[in-house]
Amino acid sequence: MNEFLIALQFLTRIFVVKQSVWTEKSFGESVKFFPAVGAVLGIICAAVVGAINFFELPLLTGAVGFASLIILTGGIHCDGLADSADGLFSGREREKILEIMKDSRAGSFGVVSLILVAALEVSALAELAKFSTAQLCAAIFSAPIIARMMMVVTIGSFPYARKSGMGKSFAKFTTRRTIIFAAIETFLLLLPLNFFCGKIFLCAAISTFGAFLVAWKFASFATEKIGGVTGDIYGAVTTLSEMFALIIFLLAGKIL
Fold first, then answer.
1. Is the dihedral of CA 147, 148, 150, 155 positive or negative?
2. Is the whole model's pTM more than 0.90, yes or no?
3. Burial, 191: exposed, middle or buried (Cβ in 10 Å; 0-12, 13-18, 19+)?
């Protein structure tokens, strides 16, 4: 339970019990509960968009859904995406890329990446709102779970690029067993969708596979550039996986 609370406090702005002293071990082992943190975010966001969708204003519903995710996480993952985009697309050498990624200022690539993500997520949620409230809620519930599962995969499958850093603790204590634990956790969290509607569960399953391909490709690209991944890459993977999970959920719903 302590590791879950650490994960919840680190990845969100939700404080159940304030953790002020973390050991490196407990911080690193909190990774296995990342999908559960995604479920907490998903439940809250599903409740919010479900209520807003009552007014049948799809674009507003999409904007509120996106804003809810940003507010609940404090934009921590979007910050990682912006820093990663500025560094990886700068055309510089490894050391300069790492230096750019560490700079708190946002560059043009970072700003553009955030605008594109916002536009695509809001559009996907707005289109999902036209289907049904149930499908909309299922999508925004499952996307944060899937995205944080992809973060676990990235942490456990790719080397850490820096000699030190907060993400180093994640990489140090994340093993194959951690990934398996998180995968089972993700399956169990998404399984209730099958009892609610088999089609919706299938959409979530397809979204998971699609998000995995996106996360793996992006992490591999980063590894080619800087010899591994960083905390910013973790955030970028989470943001991109969440966005693609929603888009794929939408497309799968139209096809099935």
1. positive
2. yes
3. exposed
